[in-house]
Amino acid sequence: MAYIDGFVLAVPAANKEAYRKHAVDAFPLFKEFGTTRMVETWGADVPDGKVTDFKGSVQATPDEVVVFSWMEYASKAARDAAGQKMMSDPRMKDMGAAMPFDGKRMIYAGFEVMVDQGPRGTPGYVDGTLMPVPAANKEAFRAWAATMAALFTEHGATRVLDGWGDDVPDGKVTDFKRAVKAKDDETVIFGWVEWPSKEVRDVAWGKIMADPRMQPDKAHPPLFDGQRMVYGGFTPIVDL
Q: What domains appear along the chain, each with residue ranges and CATH number?
């Protein structure tokens, strides 16, 4: 089964090009370790939330922009093997010493791919989400996410992916659990929707919100607390 590592971090706006170059220069090493794809997306429409939001998840300052990023692997075994290589390769230390952002506030975790609808392409815009979901709702969430993926692709999305939190570590400063205020019986969903462009996405969202399939099922309790969901729109700056 496919596997992803998800990341959220805060990068000074002035360091955008330095960050992009840092990621591009790093990819050959990650590819050597087993990464099949790396995507870096730059915050374009990242709203403030009442309970949670992307900025708060990484304690972003006013001069920083949120980056939503992921690496794809063929399997969890491939990801774990890559992680071992990263930990032992001296080139990673050199790379870490030159990061154009505060790595202490970066959040990261490993996610089992639950739903992956649509082929790999080159998106013009990405909607990123984080959600807290009770572990007991895993299969019900999988079914719901598949329905939503079909809805989004019907309205123009090129790919929809949802990853179930599998290796979600506690951080000293920030982490995914704190990002969504996850409870002890909950894990974190890391997901995204790829669009050809922001214009296509904006038109699609109007149709999606009016679609009856988006209406809550009053006969069943919600699968997760939507007030703690984190979401935002991002522009890809690296896709390798």
A: 3-239 (3.30.70.100)
Residue 132 CA to residue 193 CA, distance in Å, equals 18
Q: pTM of the entire structure?
A: 0.95
At 81, the amino acid letter reads A
| Contact (Cβ atoms closer than 8 angstroms) between residue 128 and residue 194 | no
Amino acid type, 231 = Y
pLDDT, tens only, 127-180: 999 999 999 999 999 999 999 999 999 999 999 999 999 999 999 999 999 999
Tell me the per-residue pLDDT of 75-118, one tens digit each, with 9 for 90 and over: 999 999 998 988 888 888 777 777 899 999 999 999 999 999 99
CA nearest 197: which of 148, 150, 157, 237? 157
Tokens 């870096």 -> residue: 40
Query: Following DSSP, what letter does each residue of 28-81 receive, concatenated?
Result: HHHHHHT--EEEEEEEEE----SS--HHHHTT--TTEEEEEEEEEES-HHHHHH
Q: In the chain, what percentage of residues exceed pLDDT 70? A: 100
Considering only CA atoms, which of 102, 103, 82 is closest in space to residue 38? Answer: 82
User: Are residues 234 and 47 in contact, defined by beta-carbon separation less than 8 angstroms?
Assistant: no
User: How many other CB atoms are found less than 10 A from the CB of residue 234?
Assistant: 26
Q: Which two tokens stand for residue 228?
A: 């703690």
Q: Is the dihedral of CA 15, 27, 107, 143 positive or negative?
A: positive
Provide the residue type at 196 as one letter.
P
